[in-house]
Design brief:
mainly alpha, two-stranded antiparallel ribbon, 22 helices, 6 strands, 5% strand, globular
């Protein structure tokens, strides 16, 4: 999988599609660089790999727009103003570069998926099993991108086929419900088309259980209380649907709970029994590594530890509140966070940083070249989401407690009883810190406003954060998109 996705993907993208640059200005379907590319199974394999390659920005997108947005990090702005500081401070506007990159990165990947889906046929890919797999993979990746878009921006343009510039400029924002309809249809189809597992070089590709797990997450997101009209949460009460999907994954026997927390994230244990789906990365100067370890840690830490790469700045702090939430003896704290360090000049730096994905001996050729995969869905998440659905559907309290205690035991903590929704949410916070889930968890459970405002009162020492309000559940539509055709897109409330 790593060879397939990482070597072919970058080359294929440039040949398949034109520049997107946030404007959906893909080459029209009549362009020979698209139509004439697809001749046989190998061409479609390369095209699907290009779609996987589009997931390379998924980890940083969720670092900037979920972790930094949440109570897990305090990034108020020091040493200059970076694009993520307004995200942290709830002062972000439509001109922020992170908004345009999130939008355009998702749509670039969607266009790659649409290219496959528009062109695949039995005459070009005669093997039905292979054809189904390619179709299912494209639908899975497209659904994942639309799920990001609807959670970050609400309703967005629904584009299911390759379109030219003129056509793109007439497509307005679809409703949140319409986008969810497409996401659900794609994931349901993918679950029917994809295999249960892979072997050899294909290990790491999307499976039917990955599709069902993300679909369960979709149902959980839709089910929570509505705080914002046109937001991603619909009070749909689909907990039973999520429960049944998660139980299928649990009962499949394909996944095993790993009892050593650190082993889940080992560079030598990627695509392990905990992995339902993860973004694949490979170091070695091929342009297919990840920047995440260097993005989370400061250059001064790297230099002090003789790691010959650097990050952009020293100011992405883990919040004191997150650190204090870990009980004494919780092994996840020491694995996830570095609590201060001595720099190369012998000075102690009294700041906290995420180090979850760092192996000091496994750096690549530069700061963007770390060979550690990034989890999108772990088996532990499947179990904890299942426990959550049991709480909402009148399930067994003992079963809920048993799941949470399995996670706590691995963390070195004593068992507890009577787990409720708040207890579960805090356990998820500690377990999945730095994995990009926290903001989404707060939004879908209806806790974003109350939790964030209470957190600000304790954490915002610099007094630079605006109070959290319902409108800030969504981000602003990028100004680059609004400028394409004035009046086509309306701006989200509050911006």
């Amino acid at each position: 999988m790593q060879q397939l996705l990482k070597i072919l993907g970058v080359v294929t993208v440039a040949f398949l599609l034109g520049s997107c640059t946030g404007k959906l200005d893909v080459k029209p379907i009549s362009d020979p660089s698209v139509v004439n590319f697809y001749r046989n199974q190998q061409d479609f394999e390369q095209a699907v790999n290009a779609a996987y390659n589009g997931l390379s920005t998924y980890p940083t997108r969720h670092l900037f727009l979920s972790e930094i947005r949440s109570d897990n990090m305090y990034v108020p702005g020091e040493g200059g103003t970076y694009d993520w500081n307004p995200v942290n401070n709830f002062t972000v506007n439509s001109s922020n570069a992170l908004m345009s990159s999130a939008w355009s990165d998702c749509y670039n990947t969607i266009m790659r998926c649409n290219s496959v889906l528009d062109n695949i046929s039995a005459d070009k890919v005669p093997d039905e099993t292979v054809r189904n797999q390619f179709t299912g993979e494209a639908k899975f990746i497209r659904a994942l991108m639309y799920f990001d878009l609807v959670r970050f921006f609400g309703g967005v343009p629904k584009i299911e086929h390759l379109v030219n510039v003129t056509a793109a400029q007439s497509i307005n924002r679809a409703s949140v419900q319409e986008i969810y309809d497409l996401i659900i249809a794609d994931l349901e189809s993918a679950a029917q088309l994809l295999p249960a597992s892979y072997s050899g070089a294909s290990k790491g590709r999307a499976t039917l259980y990955a599709a069902k797990g993300i679909l369960a997450r979709v149902y959980l997101t839709r089910s929570g209380p509505v705080l914002l009209d046109k937001g991603p949460v619909l009070n749909s009460n689909e907990y039973a649907k999520a429960r049944d999907l998660l139980l299928e994954i649990i009962n499949s026997g394909k996944y095993v709970f790993i009892n050593n927390y650190a082993q889940i994230f080992s560079y030598d244990n990627e695509n392990n029994s905990e992995s339902v789906f993860e973004v694949q990365f490979k170091s070695g100067g091929t342009g297919t590594g990840t920047v995440i370890p260097a993005e989370m840690l400061p250059g001064s830490y790297m230099r002090a530890n003789k790691i010959p790469v650097a990050s952009g700045n020293d100011f992405k702090y883990v919040s004191n509140d997150l650190i204090s939430s870990y009980p004494a003896g919780d092994v996840r704290l020491t694995f996830n966070v570095i609590q201060g360090f001595t720099d190369e000049n012998g000075n102690f730096v009294n700041q906290n940083y995420f180090k979850k994905f760092l192996d000091p001996k496994r750096y690549g050729v530069d700061l963007r070249d770390w060979g550690i995969n990034q989890p999108v869905l772990r088996y532990t998440d499947v179990l904890l989401m299942y426990a959550e659905t049991l709480l909402h559907t009148g399930g067994s309290q003992t079963a809920v407690d048993d799941i949470v205690n399995q996670v706590r035991t691995r963390a070195g903590l004593a068992a507890i009883t009577g787990v409720n929704a708040d207890t579960l949410l805090e356990e998820r916070r500690r377990e999945f810190a730095a994995e990009g889930l926290r903001w989404h968890d707060l939004v879908r459970t209806g806790k974003a406003v109350t939790v964030m405002n209470a957190w600000m009162a304790k954490e915002d020492e610099k007094k630079v954060m605006k109070p959290m309000k319902n409108e800030f559940i969504l981000y602003p539509v990028p100004q680059t998109e609004i400028n394409i055709k004035p009046g086509l897109y309306d701006q989200n409330a509050g911006y």
